[in-house]
Structure formats: C-alpha cells, structure tokens
Amino acid sequence: MAIAQLTRMLGVERKYNRLRTYLTTSEEFLREEILEFHFFQFNSGNAKYFLQNDQPLDVQIAELPHYQVAESVRSGDSMAIEKAKREYLKYLEFSWPSHGIETSPSNLEEKYDRFVDLVQKTEAAGKLNATVILTKIPGLQGYFVVDGNHRCSIAAALGLPVNAKVLGFPDVFDQYMRVDEFYGTNNKNLPYQSIYIDKAIVRHGRREDIYDRLATLPPELLGGKTVLDVGCNIGMNAIGAYKSGARKVVGLEVSGRIVNFATRFAMFDQCYPNVEFRQFNVDSDQLNGAEQFDIGFMLSVHHHLKNPERLAHIAKNNVTQAVVFEGHPDTNLDDYANFLNTVAFSRIEKVADLATSVFKSELSRPLWVFYK
Ligand SMILES: C[S@@+](CC[C@H](N)C(=O)[O-])C[C@H]1O[C@@H](n2cnc3c(N)ncnc32)[C@H](O)[C@@H]1O
User: Any coiled-coil ranges, and where (predicted)?
Assistant: First the structure.
C-alpha cells in the first residue's frame, strides 16, 4: 500500500505531509492518484494558455493537453486524436517562447510525434521505466509534478503506476529552479526575495522582509489601487501588494527566466492574472502612455539602470498618485536628485530604514513614499 494511503487511513496525513516537505522519499502512485497531481511548470506563456482556455489556476494532470493526447492515442479514436493534438500544439506554442524556443510547424510536429511514440512504446512494454519528480508545496494541497508531465499523463491514460521521487520544495528550488542571473540565484545560491506562498516563507532568500516592508506603507496606500512594480524580481512585492488590497498589479522585470518564476508564484498563490509580469528592460523598452497606474513600486532598482532617467520617465508619465521608492544602502535623497527633479513630487515621506539583506542587518536602506 502506498504511504499516502496509509497516512490517510491513520489520519496523520497532514503531519506526514508537513514533514515530507523537507524529506526525499520514493513512492509508487496509481492511476487515480496520478490524475490528481498538480501542474508545476507554469511560465509566462503557458499561464496565458490556461487563462484563455478558462482553466483554473490549479491545473491537474487530468486537465492537461498532455493527458488528452495520451488518452486519445490509447483510445484510437481519430476525432479525439485530432482534437487533442490541436490543443497540445497550441499549448506548446504558448509555452515554448517563454523559454526562448521558437516554434515552427516542423518542430511542433516532431515533439508531438515523439510523445505519441512514447505512449505507444510504453503501452507495448506495459510499464514506465523512468522516475518522475514530485514535490509538496507548504500551504498547498497535493503533489506537484516538477519533472514528468508527459510520463504521468501516459501512466494515467494507460492505467500504469509511476515511480516518483518526492523532494521537499527547498530542494526542488535548488535543483530545478536555478536562475543564472545575479538577481536570480547567482549570489550565494539564494533567490533575492524569499519565496512566500500565502504570506509564509517556503524558501528563504536574501530579502526576508517583503511583508515587513509592505507593512511600513501607509495603510490606505494600496487598497483598491493599481500598482506597477518596476524591477519586480520574482514577484513577491507584486503578489504582496495584491494581498494587501491592491486591485491589479503589473510587474516589469528584465530577466525572462525571473518573469517565468514570478508568474509561477502568482499561479500558486492564486492571484494571476490580477498580478501579472512582463519581461521589460527599463533601459530600452517603452511603456505606452495609456498605461496608467495609481502607485509605482521602484524598489532598489535605480542603481541598476544604465539610463535611470527612464525610471523617472515612467514615474512621471505612467504613475498618477505615488511612488514607493527604496534607495540603495547608505543613500539619501540627494543621490536621487535628478529623479526627484524630473518628476516634481508634491510631498516626500520617509517610511523606514531597512536592512540591506539577511547578511547585513544595519538599517541603512531608505524607503520613501513620493506623492505626486
Ligand atoms: C535589487 S533587485 C530588487 C528587486 C525588487 N524590486 C525588490 O526590492 O525586492 C533589482 C531587480 O531589478 C531588476 N533589473 C535590473 N535592471 C533592470 C532593467 N534594466 N529593467 C528591468 N529590471 C531590471 C533585476 O533583475 C532585479 O530583479
């Protein structure tokens, strides 16, 4: 009997699941359990696919186009095969570009053919050889498929068990979610922002003060507002702003890989597309003047820009009420004189001095609200 079934019978499932968040186990899962596995690999492209398909944020294997393909091939029903293929190719067309892969009719067909081949070979062999990778995410129900959506789909369609390695979420982050950029995980192997689900940290980062920082803002600042988060990193302030009452949040971030993860966390935290992210380089990309936001977050981003006047341009033209501006450590208003002169705010309020990061606890990082 699978351990999951045993713990359910004994009524200790929740305790066991919490413990296993940090443990690695190997288990065999059967068809009914596999169908309920949750999709993990959200990125900025496939999130749009699920959205325009009117699918919920929480996608299970049974709802994936991958499963529909495997099931149609098993059934041999030619209409079902055509329909599932169309949907699967559409999914790939949304998903691949967010990994920098260009799609063409031939590479999409090739991918589909390889998948069908695997379904047929697995059916002939009567078993799946490879191990899939699952995780449990604190605060969320069920297992998430980190690696192996196709294999799980085949197993479920053919009624075969899968062997799975279940890793804790912190291990999954380290092994499957590395981002080469400095503001990815290239500084001390830590994400810049701690990762929160439902306001609780599930993976520690260099900034653990996301919600403390938001709590320093005047309480009425975000309620019902639209927010633009410039240099949003993996999206924790954007998601936090939404959870603090903002109505709509758009995050802009130069790294496409970081944008993918920000989108993933917005899906996990059930706020997409009210919170959405765009790859955007402040130094070279332009925001349309028609895009107006009540509040701008410009947090520790000014010094990273080659053309900081572009940030001022956004503050001036795309933000109507206030900019929440976090300076870099040991800076003061004089260091941002050009920015302030360009935008011409009516009032400036210092709301906090924050720690640089978890490694430097002196309170040297200023946080202001600049009111228009
Ligand atoms: C120090 S981090 C601050 C992240 C976030 N604003 C916060 O305070 O938690 C700077 C962020 O700005 C992003 N960034 C740097 N240059 C950028 C540019 N030219 N356009 C957009 N984002 C940029 C980095 O990738 C990184 O995520």
Answer: none
Residues 220 and 317 in one domain: yes
- On whether the CB atoms of residues 338 and 327 are closer than 8 A, the answer is no
The domain tally of the chain equals 2
Give the pLDDT score at 55.
Answer: 86
Q: Best substitution site from 280, 301, 365 to test ligand 1's pocket, by max atoms within 8 Å of Cβ?
A: 301
Pocket test for ligand 1, best of 209, 214, 233, 367 (most atoms within 8 A of CB): 233
* Domain contains 185: no
Torsion of CA 294, 295, 301, 303, to 10 degrees: 80
In a domain, 183, yes or no: no
CA-proximal residue: ligand 1, atom 8 (nearest): 299
pLDDT at 12: 61
- Asked whether residue 45 is assigned to any structural domain, the reply reads yes
**Domain of residue 110, residue span:** 3-175
**47 vs 42: CA distance, rounded Å:** 6
Q: For residue 240, what is the domain's CATH number?
A: 3.40.50.150
Write out residues with Cβ below 6 Å of ligand 1.
Answer: 183, 192-193, 207, 231-233, 237, 252-255, 258, 280-283, 299-301, 304-305, 326
**E strands present in 86-137:** 131-136
pTM of the model: 0.92
Residue nearest ligand 1's atom 15 by CA: 304
Q: What is the pLDDT of residues 215-273, one digit of tens each?
A: 999 989 999 999 999 999 999 999 999 999 999 999 999 999 999 999 999 999 999 99
